[in-house]
Design brief:
By secondary structure, this protein is an alpha/beta fold. It is built from nine helices and 21 strands. It folds into two domains: 199 residues, FAD/NAD(P)-binding domain (3-Layer(bba) Sandwich), CATH 3.50.50.60; 206 residues, 3-Layer(bba) Sandwich (FAD/NAD(P)-binding domain). Pfam families: Pyr_redox_3.
């Protein structure tokens, strides 16, 4: 690659809310940069979410740089189309130098120390590169899914839109993270007979003692806690988020209540052999552990209320409304009438295009506040990049401002050298 290729002080890969936020602050420093977006602005919100999708966090947490939520329902939860409108309006405000439809296919260190960037629109060089692609590149489907008979439809949550797209019959949803439980509810409310493979995701109250739980947690400092002070340390980056929903004004999700309403619960998915579905004997354990987290959150709020002398209504103690008689481990899909499976067990990132030594043995980038040990390479928009809010609308502004400041200082030092 020659020095005649277009050069930028900064190249941002990804034109979502994280990449746009970095652009916003780089513009304030008059730093030359370009944003490469392989699809179009707000693509994943528009195309990779189901029809009834809404935010899990309330609208007041939408705090993109100098662009807080502008609507009249700060306690509500934006629907899919409203999220798209919010991100697109932010993009209009930022007016970032975005090149849509440009995929970055390779990043490596050049002979002169610059970062060499190969894209579908040609070759470029940069002093700094910010990876703002998120971590939801490759939908996870287990290898044993290939043994499922062809007459049973399989779809990943990324490609699920509504109950009508699935064939008539009963549905198995695999995974009880935020997506899994919301899709289970979407199907259940549509009158479908649903089976749910319950994993180890924790759950949270939605409202408690007269207030929305995220408001309590914000006051308790949970959203401000940095990853280096988290009890789990870096392991927090890989923990599953608590499940609850913003649907119809927001409510908590108690899987035991859904069991009383006819949803069939199983433990974690273990294997598939033909139409025989196998589960781990951990349903009771997973339900209990999710409830333990739920109760601990309530107890944290109780202590905060007591310590600060806050006048808040009392709540009855938690009680289990349903218990499994046993942990089922085998299910004949055909005999049960299951005609489709929805995989909701997450995604894995694809950083194969980055040819720089910044990844651990599992392919996860290593950084501190988004800054890697490789000079000029940064990440943003990932869970626990610095705080709990880092992967959400709430914390992106702080992370973007910090990275832009680091880049500005490094460019200034280089110019003075």
């Amino acid at each position: 690659m020659s020095n005649q290729h277009p050069h930028y002080q900064v190249i941002i890969v990804g034109g979502g809310q994280a990449g746009l936020s970095v652009s916003y602050y780089l513009q304030q420093f008059n730093i030359s940069h370009v944003v490469f977006e392989k699809n179009r602005i707000a693509h994943s919100w528009r195309n990779d979410r189901w029809d009834s999708f809404c935010l899990v966090t309330p609208n007041w947490q939408c705090q993109l740089p100098d662009f807080p939520y502008q609507g009249d329902d700060p306690q509500g939860f934006m629907l899919k189309d409203e999220i798209v409108d919010y991100v697109e309006a932010f993009a209009d405000k930022v007016n970032a130098p975005v090149n849509e439809g440009v995929a970055v296919t390779r990043v490596r260190r050049g002979k002169q120390g610059r970062l060499e960037v190969t894209t579908s629109a040609g070759e470029f060089t940069a002093d700094h590169l910010v990876v703002a692609t998120g971590g939801y590149d490759i939908p996870i489907v287990p290898d044993y899914a290939h043994s499922l008979p062809d007459h049973i439809t399989q779809v990943h949550s990324m490609h699920y839109h509504n109950p009508q797209q699935l064939p008539d019959g009963e549905v198995l949803v695999v995974g009880s993270g935020q997506s899994g439980v919301q899709l289970m509810e979407d199907l259940h409310l549509a009158g479908r007979k649903v089976h749910l493979a319950v994993g180890n995701a924790p759950r949270s109250p939605r409202l408690y003692r007269g207030r929305e739980t995220t408001e309590w947690l914000y006051d308790l400092g949970f959203y401000q806690m940095t990853v280096d002070k988290h009890p789990l340390g870096d392991a927090a980056k890989h923990k599953t988020n608590h499940y609850l929903t913003g649907r119809n004004g927001g409510h908590e999700i108690d899987l035991r209540k859904f069991a009383l309403e006819g949803v069939k619960l199983y433990g974690s998915m273990a294997n598939i052999q033909g139409a025989t579905l196998e589960f781990k004997a951990d349903l009771t354990k997973n339900l209990d552990e999710a409830d333990d987290v739920y109760v601990r959150i309530r107890e944290d709020i109780d202590r905060y209320i007591a310590d600060n002398g806050i006048d808040a209504p009392e709540e009855p103690p938690f009680r289990k409304v349903w218990e499994p008689e046993f942990d089922p481990t085998i299910l004949d899909a055909d005999a049960a009438g299951i005609t489709s499976i929805v995989w909701a067990i997450g995604f894995r990132p694809d950083y194969s295009w980055i040819e720089l030594p910044v990844f651990d043995g599992r392919g996860h980038p290593q950084f501190k506040r988004g800054i890697t040990r490789e000079q000029g390479l940064y990440f943003i928009g990932l869970p626990w990049l610095n705080t709990w809010g880092s992967g959400r609308f709430l914390g992106i502004a702080e992370d973007a401002q910090y990275l832009a400041g680091v880049i500005h200082d490094r460019l200034k030092q280089l110019a003075a050298a």
